[in-house]
Amino acid sequence: MLTTSLSSNQNKIKEDQILLKINRIDKNLQFKMTKEENSNIHFLDLAINRGRKTISISIYRKTTNTDTTIHYISNHPFEQKISAYRYYIQRMLTLPISQIGINKEWTIICAMAKSNGFPQSIIHNLRKRLNLKKQTPISIATMSNQKWVPYTFFGPAVRKITTLFKGTNVKIAFRTTNTIQKQLSKNPHNQQNLSRIYSLKCNTCNKKYVGQTGRDTDTRYKEHIRYIRTNNPQSAYATHILQNRHEYGPKNETLKLLKACNKGTQMNCWETMYMQQLYQREILIAEQQVCELNPLYSCICDTRPPLRNRSTVPDTTTSDTHTPTGKH
Known about the structure:
This protein is of the alpha+beta class.
């Protein structure tokens, strides 16, 4: 859709004649005309009023406008959530509207932010920053040295990594994966067949094993249990259960899905990160220890101390005939 504004001297030519000539240029390109009513006309998001000596401009909103933006508590990058208000405030400060119009627009922006869960302090601080930016032009040399890098936003924990680039010429542009297209394309019947990272818990010491699989998780869980029952230390989880004479439980109590992702380098990185997270919390099984800590993973790992009041660990030195059992 193409929108244009036209001013004409009605003493020399009528606007209907101009519209007729324009529509004769191409039959596939036809224009419609909105005329001025009571010295007012709407053009895009502007309301233009023609007075006797001056023309005044104000912000125009359709009657169907809902004032809905991305909610403050939604799982989106803050830059994307605040972008709508950045545009509204920037437009208010840039357009040559009257002080009365500015006050009216500011009231609407604050009400819109409140209805979408935004604290008023964030909106007021944003206006101050944009006012300051308007008064302080950015040099072209500074902009040319900047390099923008896309980064997938999974949650607030990502900030612990991206803040490392503050003070550098690297700027982070967040992209999201929870788009409407991906939500609609998900097939709930095939969720168990996705490649994913999982954890297995020991029912005796509550420590965990982290693994990855590209097959059905039921199949992978049964393999671990088969290794335990046949006294085959094929996996680190089976080795932990056999050597320590601990107990395992049913799948719904033992197995937890941590992350769904594609097989390859991406899955290996996620698996290593989850292993380091459990290691730093001292709840990773000893048979699966982390040799070297990655500082990037340490930024987003939960380093809270583990619970020390474990009273469920039995004495494994009193019997030589105890064998691993499963509680089903």
